[in-house]
Design goal:
Blueprint (H helix, E strand, L loop, with lengths): L7 E2 H11 L4 E4 L6 H8 L4 E4 L3 H15 L3 E5 L3 H16 L3 E7 L15 H4 L6 E4 L6 H13 L5 E7 H4 L2 E2 L16 H13 L3 E5 L6 H14 L3 E4 L13 E5 L5 H9 L2 E5 L23 E5 L13 E4 L2 H8 L12 H12 L11 H11 L5 E4 L5 H7 L8 E2 L9 H11 L5 E6 H6 L3 H7 L5 E5 L5 H6 L1
The structure holds thiamine diphosphate and magnesium ion.
Amino acid sequence: MRGKDNLRSAAEVIVDQLRVHGVRHVFCVPGESYLAVLDAFHDSDLVITVCRQEAGACIMAEAIGKVTGRPGVCFVTRGPGATNAAHGIHIARQDSTPLILFVGQVARDTREREAFQELDYRAVFGSMAKWATEIDDAARVPEIVSRAFHTAANGRPGPVVIAIPEDMLIERVAVDDAPPFSPIETSPGPAEMEKFAAMLAAARAPIMLLGGSRWSQAASDQVARFAQNHALPVCTTFRRGHLFDQTHPCYAGDLGIGPNPKLLARIKASDLVIVVGGRLGELPSQRYTLFDIPRPQTPFVHVHPGAEELGRVYSAHLAINATPTAFAAALADLKFARAPAGDAEAAHADYLQWTERPTEQPGGVNFGAVMVWLRENLPADAILCNGAGNYAAWIHRFYRFSRFGSHVAPASGSMGYGVPAAVAMKRLYPDRTVVCLAGDGDFLMNGQEFATAVQYDLPFTTVIVDNGMYGTIRMHQ
Ligand SMILES: Cc1ncc(C[n+]2csc(CCOP(=O)(O)OP(=O)(O)O)c2C)c(N)n1
Ligand SMILES: [Mg+2]
């Protein structure tokens, strides 16, 4: 996109960096604060989705980050655009999703006068984003955007916010593109894997809990093979059911809200807990009651890609700073003096018994039966998207996810997620079946993105569980 003078506007440099770093999809709501970027979009081959509201746009980008492991990208205008987009930033933070939000900013010579729609994004997003910054110098666009990709995707992934002053965007500069980024794998050391093997070999009743991000289909398959070889029961934590094939004979169930009491009993009776990828936050830990803090009573292995998460809540007997992908790959090389053996068969039988048939429900519609129908009729690679509400309990209990990325939903428990996530999934995977499941309250929080789906001809099915109330809150009351 260089002119004859070999110069590019900063906006063009930004768009070129997106291309360099492998971005294909950008979600946005336009704003006069970043017109130069809109012009640069026009001349690029990026696939742009113009959304109805910034919360929807940012959630779409977050959903892309969730299933690809590479930062989703969103552009919004300053002030109200940025505060609307905060919805998606908070989800990316809690869900450990790589995401980059670009926010238009007032011109540099008007800053700090509280100019039109001005906000200090470092302050506003300081505690919500993994990094919040502003680009002052057009020549540093490649450096800062490159750092944003690395920061968003490495270690424990999260959201990055970059403010881009409108006058900076039109400056013309001669700069080189940054080299393409790729997420950095953190691998477990041989000594750690040896210790892990010894702990597993000594255990009579081990259980593995999968969560967090930085997974892939290959990693999920590697864990499944390892589990099968050692009869190791594997459960998934809240909203991470797609990390393990739930039809696999080692699948022990979903550890979230209202889990199978037999699964809880099994975890409490286990003599080795192996947490891979997740933080074991408030919901899967059953409000932090499952394990003692800081030192769990049960031998506890914690594998996490973010070093700062190890020891933050749980002081594990063995902490391994590794991505789930690298840890899963290392499992195949483990050597055991005595083959470990778990009780996967009984654990899976408990799971099947808990989920086989929908429970009796009052009223004309049994949502459990709807989920059982969906699990029997949807293709295995169908993608289910949802937000928050009591209705989601039936998804977790009765659906059987079998592929990585087939459940796209917020571990942060944010309403309004399903519709924008479904738009993003259909945009990313036009040939796959996408189903949005939403409560009546949930649907209307970002339901306007239905218009985006229609505009871009993105057909997906939405099932609205209409009980005429914010049922979750009624329940708590
Ligand atoms: C953005 C957001 N706002 C508010 C809440 C609090 N909240 C959690 S569930 C819920 C009600 C959901 O209602 P609905 O979507 O109709 O589902 P139901 O519980 O009735 O099945 C509310 C208000 C939330 N989780 N997220
Ligand atoms: Mg409702």
